[in-house]
Design brief:
eight-stranded antiparallel sheet, six-stranded antiparallel beta barrel, 24 strands, 6 helices, alpha+beta
Length: about 375
């Protein structure tokens, strides 16, 4: 499919740096503030489709569906906030309804027999198409091409929910710790501390890491290992891929492991969904903490033998930047706040190439009756 249509609202690049200038701006603190403000203005708009972090012309292009932006809300917000920046509004050729149809069909019963090999989808603003990550010669790829033609681009890859060290986590337990399932031996990562409607604290991990009632352990430096709690709720897996972990007498707090970065830990003081285009930090027990991935989609779907998990965010870094690996599932996705705090954005669900991550949004977690802890 051809790239995004030329925009009447496209500003000139601020210099001749081309794509490098766009990427430099996106990684700046000013850009994170601007993108957060843009999200607050139009983040809930059905017209907002995605963002191209490097259009090759020095622009950071916000893709929007002009048929859903009749009042010009997205365009006006980008024009106002993008003054003296490379940020531009660019109308898409692909419409929001077709993008929604791709996600719906991917999760449909028609593909149930074939989807177990793995498939995921997200809108790519650079190509103005929906990327479908699945074996290129497989039946899902063929079905998607036949049904949607140039609206989809198949990329050969198999999404993997990342069950696999950050060992030695003692009470009060932190997010980003290595935990393992006492029944299956699966190693995963703890997510943010949350509390339920009764004010009882617990932790999170990915639902695909273990079933309800399974016991979780932490710390390899003690015998027996520390009890981390049991899985009490799994968020209607696979529609949602998180579970709540709790046991009486076990303490949890609002701190996350952020090593090997400095500082090596941060306190969670706020919670909000990932922002399109913004940089996020990912902290898994296997990979450690990295802050190199930018959110390129806030409407992604991941499917495998367990079924489909919709309404995910998807973030990616440059090919040589590790983001998530086996054993990182359930770990915290966050943004830095000041010198020692963090804003919870979601939890790790899956990845494909090692430099990317599918994210369970914090709003989905909190919509299930849990609240992210933002005080000690």
């Amino acid at each position: 499919m051809a790239g995004l249509a030329t925009s009447a609202f496209a500003a000139e690049p601020l210099d001749s740096g081309g794509g490098d200038h766009a990427l430099d701006w996106v990684s700046s603190g000013d850009a994170q503030v601007t993108l957060q403000e843009l999200d607050g203005r139009v983040g809930a708009s059905s017209a907002l489709l995605g963002i191209d972090l490097n259009d090759g012309n020095g622009h950071v292009a916000v893709a929007y569906d002009p048929t859903h932006d009749a009042a010009g809300g997205v365009v006006a917000a980008v024009e106002e906030l993008g003054v003296d920046t490379p940020l531009v509004a660019t109308p898409s050729v692909l419409d929001a309804a077709t993008i929604a149809d791709v996600h719906t069909y991917l999760a449909s019963p028609e593909l149930d027999a074939d989807r177990g090999v793995g498939a995921a989808a997200y809108y790519d603003a650079h190509l103005d198409a929906v990327i479908v990550l699945t074996p290129a010669d497989g039946p899902v790829a063929a079905a998607m091409r036949d049904r949607f033609g140039e609206a989809v681009v198949v990329v050969d890859g198999v999404p993997s929910r990342l069950s696999g060290p950050r060992a030695g986590d003692l009470p009060a337990h932190w997010a980003g710790s290595q935990i393992w399932n006492a029944t299956t031996g699966a190693a995963c990562t703890s997510g943010f501390t949350t509390y339920n409607v009764f004010g009882v604290r617990g932790s999170l991990t990915a639902a695909h890491c273990g079933t309800l009632g399974h016991r979780w352990w932490s710390s390899w430096v003690t015998t027996p290992p520390y009890d981390f709690g049991s899985g009490w709720g799994n968020g209607a897996f696979p529609t949602q891929d998180f579970q709540w972990i709790y046991a009486a007498g076990i303490s949890y707090t609002n701190v996350i492991h952020t090593d090997p970065l400095t500082p090596a830990s941060r306190s969670v003081t706020a919670a909000a969904d990932p922002v399109l285009g913004a940089m996020v930090c990912v902290s898994g027990a296997a990979t450690g903490a990295t802050c190199t991935a930018n959110v390129v989609s806030t409407n992604a779907t991941n499917c495998d033998v367990w079924g489909c998990t919709p309404n995910l965010a998807y973030a990616a870094a440059s090919p040589w930047s590790p983001v998530a690996a086996a054993g990182d599932s359930g770990g915290p996705v966050y943004t830095n706040s000041g010198s020692s705090n963090a804003t919870a954005r979601g939890t790790i669900v899956a990845g494909v190439f090692g430099n990317d991550v599918f994210i369970q949004k914090v709003s989905t977690i909190q919509g299930a009756g849990l609240t992210v802890l933002t005080v000690p």
